């Protein structure tokens, strides 16, 4: 069962590459998403046995992030059916920003890379082996770079190059971190057979602490640059603003979580070694820096996709902060990861609808959305309220849980910075979103007619899920969240 | 033990040479030299048999011959200006490299190394390599020098992993080889696109995305 999970998207990707007809290929993506999601869903009922000699093994933490990745992919795949109908054709297009002509990448290659991307993320989530995890995260970089460069113009190339260079250096630093973990566990008499958590955790109390500390710093900076923690976040706004919206949704909703999982695995090793407090301090520090950075940049930002990207930097900061505080905040962070993925995925898909009609990413020029696209405008407003943590959406519950744990743990200063950053971001985003939704339709924009079902169904479903989680968390999900939070508890 | 010490000293010198070189062609040759030296380290540490020998041959083929050839081919195809254009000067870079070397030597004297794991000077040599590589990534204008810098940094990480290879797991080496392979492959493709689109591989022209 677990063995098949990464293989299904891989095979589907090859099929997509071979299929000559556009229509079936687009629906193939959606079918793969559904199949993958169904299989992942059955793991919630029947925990799967380890596969490939223990290289793949699903624990609550992995299960949570795997489900998110699968869900986001499925939503994006259905959205892609409509998106590719308009964007798939290979002919010269005019760049709306600088007027130069460009073509899109071949749709087959795009579909292949999407499937490979899902396969790589599945491996990342479904392993407890640090080596496999690392290879998987590297594979996500390689499979997603062509996705960002779908529109083959200068700006997307610049974004792709930045993404490749920054994330490759990050992944190299993470490798260094992994090697330092090996040094910490070095035992000439009885060497550890593999870098599997099951192997390492019992040995953790006896590992060399200075080396573990150094390893964690490199893993945090390495995977953190992929996760988009400030100040290593520079690639994120560029890549998210230049890639197709469904790719941005996958990057933000699924990929950043996978990188976070890399850091969480390191936390899992350091806690039993008695270094939980050390991890916590660093995570809180990077979390707060990310939130403040996002708050500073989001105010007055004229580009709505970059605005969403900076919001991702903020929420990744919240995740790091929550795990760093520990206790109830760790549970809050896990719930927050779920809520953020659902909401941010929906918002990026909606931003794609707006971009398709207005041909601009400027908040100042894309006005009167409620007149041109009434459903999209309603979802855009709801999504904005959700992402800023307004009740009754799920992010309110998780952000409040983290805040309460901060006060309970005596982190007064951090809590103050947290609340101020959230408030500033709310105001900053509100200005842009309200301006976009209201006002008259710009004369240059033609009324697009009724909205297509495929362009609003996915974001609607994701937002509905985020709303539900604000009102009610199912018992099964709460159990997995609690077990995931317990796995990353910082210990004494 | 003498062999590995000589190798490591040579590696340190190569690392500093990365920062002082002004011609792209020479830079490519230095990459090849570093690859060959790296290929010799598993032999010098573990002796010429079994796993160490295979690893060494693979490294020679990939880092010593494959990449430098790929980079050289890219260089000749792109018809770029053969001079390495720095953001900050060669003397400054070299000074920074020496600073990095001194720092890593100091670090070696302070860190509690597991007894018998690292031969003396391996840790500073690896750290200087990472440092020089990252300096090339941030301090040079051409996309190609960024790729070479990335390779140099990877080589440093690889060097640090070599003594651990005897611990039984081959994952580390496999992943390093895989990583460098795809990095060059993908970055090579990206380089061609950059050259085609911007008619240059000067990343200084990347200035349209900002807040």
UniProtKB/TrEMBL annotation, chain B:
It comes from the Bacteria. Its main location: membrane. One of its GO terms (cellular component) is plasma membrane. It is a multi-pass membrane protein. Keywords: Cell membrane, Membrane, Transmembrane, Transmembrane helix. It is found in: Cell membrane. InterPro entries: HyfE-like. Signal peptide: none annotated. The chain crosses the membrane at residues 53-75, 87-106, 118-138, 147-165, 171-191. PANTHER family: HYDROGENASE-4 COMPONENT E (PTHR38601). This is Hydrogenase-4 component E. It comes from Solidesulfovibrio magneticus (strain ATCC 700980 / DSM 13731 / RS-1).
């Amino acid at each position: 069962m677990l063995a098949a999970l990464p293989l299904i998207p891989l095979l589907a990707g090859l099929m997509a590459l071979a299929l000559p007809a556009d229509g079936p290929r687009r629906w193939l993506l959606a079918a793969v998403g559904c199949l993958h999601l169904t299989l992942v869903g059955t793991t919630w009922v029947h925990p799967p046995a380890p596969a490939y000699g223990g290289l793949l093994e699903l624990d609550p933490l992995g299960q949570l992030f795997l489900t998110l990745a699968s869900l986001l992919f499925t939503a994006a795949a259905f959205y892609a059916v409509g998106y590719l109908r308009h964007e798939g054709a290979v002919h010269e297009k005019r760049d709306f920003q600088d007027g130069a002509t460009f073509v899109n990448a071949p749709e087959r290659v795009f579909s292949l890379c999407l499937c490979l991307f899902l396969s790589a993320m599945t491996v990342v989530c479904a392993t407890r082996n640090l080596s496999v995890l690392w290879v998987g995260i590297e594979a996500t970089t390689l499979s997603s770079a062509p996705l960002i460069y779908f529109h083959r113009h200068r700006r997307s190339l610049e974004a792709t190059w930045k993404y490749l260079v920054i994330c490759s250096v990050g992944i190299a630093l993470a490798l260094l971190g992994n090697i330092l973990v090996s040094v910490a566990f070095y035992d000439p008499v009885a060497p550890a057979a593999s870098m599997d958590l099951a192997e390492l955790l019992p040995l953790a109390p006896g590992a060399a602490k200075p080396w573990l500390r150094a390893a964690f710093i490199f893993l945090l900076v390495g995977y953190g640059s992929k996760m988009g923690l400030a100040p290593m976040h520079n690639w994120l706004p560029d890549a998210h603003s230049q890639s197709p919206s469904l790719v941005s949704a996958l990057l933000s909703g699924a990929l950043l979580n996978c990188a976070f999982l890399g850091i969480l695995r390191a936390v899992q090793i350091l806690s039993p070694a008695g270094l939980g407090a050390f991890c916590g301090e660093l995570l809180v520090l990077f979390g707060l820096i990310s939130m403040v950075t996002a708050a500073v940049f989001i105010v007055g930002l004229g580009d709505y996709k970059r605005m969403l990207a900076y919001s991702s930097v903020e929420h990744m900061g919240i995740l790091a902060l929550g795990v760093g505080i520990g206790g109830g905040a760790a549970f809050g962070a896990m719930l927050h990861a779920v809520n953020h993925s659902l909401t941010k995925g929906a918002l990026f898909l909606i931003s794609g609808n707006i971009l398709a009609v207005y041909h601009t990413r400027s908040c100042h020029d894309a006005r009167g959305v409620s007149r041109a696209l009434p459903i999209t405008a309603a979802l855009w407003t709801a999504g904005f309220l959700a992402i800023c943590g307004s009740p009754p959406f799920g992010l309110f519950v998780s952000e409040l849980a983290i805040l309460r744990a901060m006060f309970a743990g005596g982190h007064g200063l951090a809590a103050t910075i947290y609340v101020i950053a959230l408030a500033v971001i709310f105001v900053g985003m509100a200005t842009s979103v309200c301006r976009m939704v209201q006002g008259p339709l710009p004369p240059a924009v033609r009324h697009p007619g009724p909205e297509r079902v495929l362009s609003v169904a996915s974001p609607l479903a994701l937002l509905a899920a985020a709303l539900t989680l604000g009102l009610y968390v199912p018992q099964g999900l709460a159990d997995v969240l609690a077990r995931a939070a317990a796995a990353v508890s910082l210990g004494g | 033990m003498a062999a590995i010490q000589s190798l490591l000293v040579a590696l340190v010198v190569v690392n500093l040479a990365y920062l002082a070189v002004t011609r792209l062609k020479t830079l490519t040759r230095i990459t090849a030299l570093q690859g060959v030296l790296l290929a010799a380290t598993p032999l010098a540490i573990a002796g010429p048999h079994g796993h160490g020998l295979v690893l060494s041959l693979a490294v020679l083929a990939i880092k010593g011959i494959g990449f430098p050839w790929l980079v050289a081919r890219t260089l000749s195809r792109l018809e770029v200006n053969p001079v390495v254009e720095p953001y900050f000067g060669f003397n400054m870079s070299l000074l920074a490299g020496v600073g990095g070397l001194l720092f890593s030597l100091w670090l070696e004297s302070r860190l509690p190394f597991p007894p018998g794991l690292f031969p003396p000077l391996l840790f500073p040599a690896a750290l200087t390599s990472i440092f020089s590589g990252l300096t090339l990534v941030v301090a040079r204008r051409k996309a190609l020098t960024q790729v070479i810098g990335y390779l140099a940094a990877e080589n440093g990480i690889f060097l640090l992993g070599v003594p651990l290879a005897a611990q039984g797991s081959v994952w580390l080496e496999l992943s390093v080889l895989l990583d460098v392979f795809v990095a060059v492959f993908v970055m090579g493709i990206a380089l061609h696109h950059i050259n085609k689109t911007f008619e240059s591989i000067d990343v200084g022209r990347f200035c349209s995305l900002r807040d």
